[in-house]
Design brief:
5-stranded mixed beta sheet; 5 strands; 31% helix
Length: 131
């Protein structure tokens, strides 16, 4: 991979979608045109987004540029983490086992359950009256 060549990765979590591009660089994150600390208000979400590079102990070796939409901050952080891990796997297939072992290449399948007719929410039923 050359310095100007990007590697793409797509991550999803709940209803959030992250389109991630990585290239060799200084470790900067740019999400929707904003730096990582500014985009994610909490340290938890920022650390989750940086998880794959932190696992590989190479946080300053790639620049990450991402476009994220949908969902909330926590879902977006999870989508970004999966997108970065998939891009790293494409850039260097040797890293596959370490990323898989760290749990970064598994897509979280949990989604919001749909509302059913006759109920108030997905599972909440109206109050039962005997008489």
């Amino acid at each position: 991979m050359t310095a100007s060549q990007y590697v793409l990765g797509l991550g999803r979590r709940k209803t959030a979608v992250a389109r991630v591009r990585i290239k060799p660089g200084t470790g900067s994150y740019l999400i929707n045109g904003r730096p990582l600390a500014e985009f994610f208000g909490t340290l938890r979400d920022a650390n989750e987004a940086k998880g794959p590079l932190a696992l590989l102990e190479t946080p300053d070796s790639y620049d990450v540029v991402a476009s994220v939409h949908g969902g909330g901050p926590h879902g977006q952080a999870g989508a970004l983490s999966l997108g970065v891990a998939r891009a790293l796997k494409t850039a260097n297939p040797v890293l596959f086992e370490r990323l898989r072992g760290g749990g970064f290449l598994t897509r979280d399948p949990r989604m919001k359950e749909r509302k059913k007719y006759g109920l108030k929410r997905a599972r909440k039923a109206p109050q039962y009256t005997k008489r």
